Amino acid sequence: MTALSPVAAMILGIVLALWLGAAIWAVMSGQRMRRDGTQSQGKIDRLTMLLASAPAAPVIVHPDGRLEAADRLAKWLGRTRAPNFLSELTAEDGGIEPEDAAALSQDIAAAQRAGKSFARAVRGVNSTRLLLVRGAPAGPELAESGGALLWVFDATDSQAEIQSLRSQVAQLREALEALAGLVEAAPFPMWHRTSDLRLSLVNSAYVRAVDAEDAADVITQGIELVESVGGVPPEAAAADAMARDQLVERMVPATIDGERRMMRVVDVPLGEAGIAGYAVDQHELEQARVEGRRIEAAQRDLLDRLSAGVARFGPDRTLRFWNQPFMSLFGLRQEALADAPVFERVLDQMRDARRLPEHRDFPAWRSERRDWFLSPEPLEENWLLQDGTHLRVYAQPLPDGGLLLIFEDRTEQVQLSSARDTLLRVRTATFDNLFESIGVFAADGRLQMWNSRFRMIWGASEELLATHPRIDDLMRDVQSCLAKPEQGNLVRELVRAATVERKQRMGHVGFADGRIFEFAAIPLPDGNALFTMLDVTDSRRVEQVLRDRNEALEQADKIKTAFVTNMSYELRTPLTTIAGFAEMMSAGYAGELPEPARDYVAGILQSTGRLSMLIDNVLDLTQSEAGTLPIERLPVDLGALASARVERLRGEAASKGMDLALDLTPAMGVVRGDERRIGQCIDHLLENALTYCSRGARILLHGDGTADRARIVISDNGPGIPTERQQAIFEPLVRAEQARNGAKAGMGLPLARQLVQAHGGTLELVSKKGQGTMILIELPRG
Fold first, then answer.
1. Which domains, ranges and CATH numbers included, belong to the chain?
2. Per-residue pLDDT at 606
3. For residue 529, what are the contacts with CB-CB under 8 A and spacing of at least 6?
4. pLDDT at 41
5. Which pLDDT belongs to residue 390?
6. What pTM was estimated for this model as a whole?
């Protein structure tokens, strides 16, 4: 075998390398083309799906007449398959109406030759669908030069809706013309305003009402039908209706044909179309209504003044009117009738009150009475009630379908004689059993009636009284019974004043046996006079005893006040001496004291100070109750005073583990009063809070005020005071009783209230058990 030369081997190696490189490049190019093909196929599939779901079917018309069409086109045309040539599509059996096919052929030819776009609606022969064809020249990527692209839409539903809208527009146009004719023919003014509230349409009645030449004249000049009411022009009322988006009615005056008329004007908002309005002459109607109301009111007033019971029912059988005698006669309540009950319900209420005749079949009886509403003639019947009341019932059907019932009580007429005899017997028995002495004198001064008490008091014989003596003769015979016989003239004058002058007089007279009588002469409606006498001997004696007792109590109170005052001053002298010696011993005048002795002396000083304060409180309380407490009237700076009192007690509060706070405002200001007394009041209230609060409590003094009053508020978060004890803590006697029983009770709170009241102020307690206490003081500036 012949060996290759080096050159040949090199050439062969180069050829093999080039062949290998070409093979690698071919493999890589094939893979890249495969990927591009896969991506292109995916895009083609997506575009195919997009075209299949599009609302239009594409059709490509080639220059030689061939068609590329979607399968949906065959379904829309009622064919089994899509046409392959344009001639098939436009043929007589191609599925399109012949006229539409000819026009479509011309449009496609124009698009192929001149490049014109078009839109054409065509209807299928074998289908009820209406197709919309939009055409345009096809691009070179779709067809050769001279091709066309058609998009076919199914416009059946859209066209039906268009036809429906056209029909509605025609109907609305006809309705608008009819409405315009109706507005023009209306006998009352009507108008229309645009959204800017300017008049845009008026009818002939409007033109006549404002005495204008024509509608154009009214609109041009903006002539309004009605006047401004209360400064509000018609445009403002229309704007209000538009803003509220609801119909607005109002009654306004207007001048029509030279006469003032009352018009009912209605503004109707029409949304963006503006405002429509009309006006109806209400003058005659209002006059008729006023006259009707006047007649009805007069009738009601007349029926209400009748003594007979009256009830009127409306056409719907509900109660419309009743008078007071009707309610009283049948025992009905006002609230039960105010709800306008029906006729049957009113009868039920009468029966519940046992004010109807008894019947075995009440529903049937009630049904017969309900037929009164339908009766052509008035009806009348008599009712005998369970209590013996005899009623005459008159039923009058009314023209409007209602019913008028009149109930006349004829019991008195039926039983007049018996009732009169009974009344006389009852009156006689009543007179004879009265505790008072009663006599009735006629206008001529003669005694007409009397009771046994009258005869016994005056000691007159039955024979004398039976002669009906005159008051002069009667007093002449009985004046010996009087402690002062001349008082008989007083009785005589009183009877004369009651019978002649018709004046009521009163007085008292004493009898010879010591009895005292109060008497009165009272005019009676029939011209007679009633003379009554009442034995008040015991009352006068009790009154005298009470008067004597009151004088004794007042004298005792004065003695008590004087005693407390003197004792207070008497106690001060030895107390001052004890305090003075104790202070000297504490200061070392008697020599140096041992430690226990100094504690004893300090206890003596503390007790004497407290005793002195208690004596001052008792004296002040006594003087306050007696009204003799001296009060100065000088300017008092409440802020400085309150601060000083709080600082004085701050150490004691700290020793007890309490927080004593102060909160003052500049509005607290100055009042005119007694600085010592006001400070004493604050001390009592703060000490009371320190006494009753426990460790950890917080006590606050707050001050503010107004232009005419200053206010001090002392509050704490202590145990509080039960409601039932709040009033008693201001009673000195109750506090004293509590102190005797060993309870913590002093005179501080009662004295504090009296000091505040002495300045013309008020002290109020607000407390609740377990929630603390607040005391509010208000002092006048003056």
1. 49-154 (3.30.450.20), 186-281 (3.30.450.20), 288-414 (3.30.450.20), 422-535 (3.30.450.20), 630-780 (3.30.565.10)
2. 62
3. 440, 441, 495, 498, 499, 521, 522, 523
4. 64
5. 87
6. 0.31
